[in-house]
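Usage

Read records sequentially. Each one opens with the input sequence:
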Amino acid sequence: MPEIALGELKTSDQTNRRLKALLYLISDVLALPCAVVSIQEDRVIYEFPTHHINACFCKRLESITGNHYSLNHFLERCHRVGIDSNNSIYNCPFGLINILVPVFDKTDYVAALQVGPFIVEDSENLLLRHGLSDIDISSPSESLQDAIQYLRRLPKGTTDYLVTIARVARAFLSDEQIDVQLKAPIHALPENGKEASDYDLIYAIQQFVAENYANPNICLEMVARHVYVHPSYVSHIFSEKFNTGFRDYVNWLRIKRAKELLTSTSKPIGEVCRIIGYSDHSYFNKIFRRWEGMTPTEYRSAVKTGQIDAPKRESGDTVAITDR
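and closes with the structure output:
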């Protein structure tokens, strides 16, 4: 795990270790913007990316509207979350959503962890809804274009996703089992911590998709919610480690199972189609032909007549992980 500096934050070794591990998870693994506010010093002592608080949306709007937007509302909310730790989802004055999690050192409230901001609507609509309807966004200035592009780069999140991250963060900072893992000898882990975390993530993704590929509604967002990362990062994992796209991977699993059902059972083609997750018979035929060069009916017939071998039943539904 890379070194994470927390300034002069005064905490026990246990709290310091937990917080640094959580920051690594959020910034390096989940690739989410985050910050730590010291309640003792009433200032930001850690940011990822660097200076992301002072480059936030309201600060970008200052050059557009000429108004000054104070960050006092943010610091005030950081203080309040220590009193009401369950109220951790925070809307800034412009509608962006942040997660705030209190950091306690035994019983002392010492810091607030901020994750975000997240966006839950179209960036232009966000501008219009929060008092900027008099600005012509059809021909935006350079400053306005910068603000819009900033919004479009923000991670998107549903309420369930944000609540889950908040709960995981709170558990991470209070679970004694975390301490056991953090105290594990360094030599027990691969030398490259990022590769280790990626391998765990890849395994979790493979397991989830292998167990849920027959769900007609499976999608990148569903997988991302299960493993607590952004959908774009799940897509990146499939591209970089599996050498395929997410949808092709799901189709591969479905066709693989379809071949087993076609040759080991007498189930009608339509039933096989439904079992593996397709609701459209003609689409199933199209995908099957793309993978096997023939329709499901032709495949079943070819196996029966010995023209091709029946598929072998394998114990796992995974593909090789590549290192790039």
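Summary fields computed downstream for this record:
- Residues 184-197, 315-324 have pLDDT under 50 and may be disordered.
- Residues 13-180 form one domain.
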